[in-house]
């Protein structure tokens, strides 16, 4: 089978890999669609992000859907030919944090396409994938592209849980990539009264308006547009920081009202924080990392038509054009979510 392997910055190769047989509790899957994530782009463009660096070739990808091809022993509830969304989250279920129900903080997490541990955890961008049956959520009624969006949707659903009460709140979203747009959708579904979104690209901001933002601001052309929101100690109750950029976080903090909540999703490396403002306004700074049980919830929300991710999928390219797909996904002036069609 063919797999998409990154060897270093701008060194992406389609390589042959052996096909594995499913074991006890496992299924063999024929990949359908795979979405290129921001972390995939960091590996492709820069060889990693922050302190996380590639130290060996790694198969990329963790946003995937697939068709069930064969069932291992002891597998029930799935059938050959069925479309499934494949969760990349594979906690050990026995460590301290798994026992506390914090599966996303697992000490022995095997998350597809991650260079955090060494040896690296190989990713899911391969024509044939053997996965645990518990990773596979039936996606009947969805397209392969929609099912592959379950992973980034789960990220924002987890962040929304971390934010706490949202009903009737004023929300600011900084960074309008796929996670930013899905945060807008999740916050709106959770009952946000007003959502303002910022970015540096008119293209992404146009999609943010379609996703449900009440107002969008291009901080490149309108650098002072958040200033009115800073009056009287601030206006917003919740900040979804999705850019990972210090200027966005600093500007967002200035626009938050006392005792507001900051949800940090963007992974851009360490940054300096305005601690005096955080302290004086008694802000809550909360990290949000990955997800677990929210994955299946996201699939159900899409199946019920309560969340529509289709407008975010702007491009789909074949496996043979993988490098072109990664270059396109890097271009924020024309691409939101670029997916690769495996079958």
From TrEMBL:
<comment type="similarity">
    <text>Belongs to the zinc-containing alcohol dehydrogenase family.</text>
</comment>
<feature type="domain" description="Alcohol dehydrogenase-like C-terminal">
    <location>
        <begin position="178"/>
        <end position="300"/>
    </location>
</feature>
<dbReference type="GO" id="GO:0046872">
    <property type="term" value="F:metal ion binding"/>
</dbReference>
<keyword id="KW-0560">Oxidoreductase</keyword>
<feature type="domain" description="Alcohol dehydrogenase-like N-terminal">
    <location>
        <begin position="25"/>
        <end position="139"/>
    </location>
</feature>
<dbReference type="Pfam" id="PF00107">
    <property type="entry name" value="ADH_zinc_N"/>
</dbReference>
<dbReference type="InterPro" id="IPR013154">
    <property type="entry name" value="ADH-like_N"/>
</dbReference>
<keyword id="KW-0520">NAD</keyword>
<keyword id="KW-0862">Zinc</keyword>
<protein>
    <submittedName>
        <fullName>L-idonate 5-dehydrogenase</fullName>
    </submittedName>
</protein>
<dbReference type="GO" id="GO:0016491">
    <property type="term" value="F:oxidoreductase activity"/>
</dbReference>
<dbReference type="InterPro" id="IPR013149">
    <property type="entry name" value="ADH-like_C"/>
</dbReference>
<dbReference type="InterPro" id="IPR036291">
    <property type="entry name" value="NAD(P)-bd_dom_sf"/>
</dbReference>
<keyword id="KW-0479">Metal-binding</keyword>
<dbReference type="InterPro" id="IPR011032">
    <property type="entry name" value="GroES-like_sf"/>
</dbReference>
<keyword id="KW-0614">Plasmid</keyword>
<dbReference type="Pfam" id="PF08240">
    <property type="entry name" value="ADH_N"/>
</dbReference>
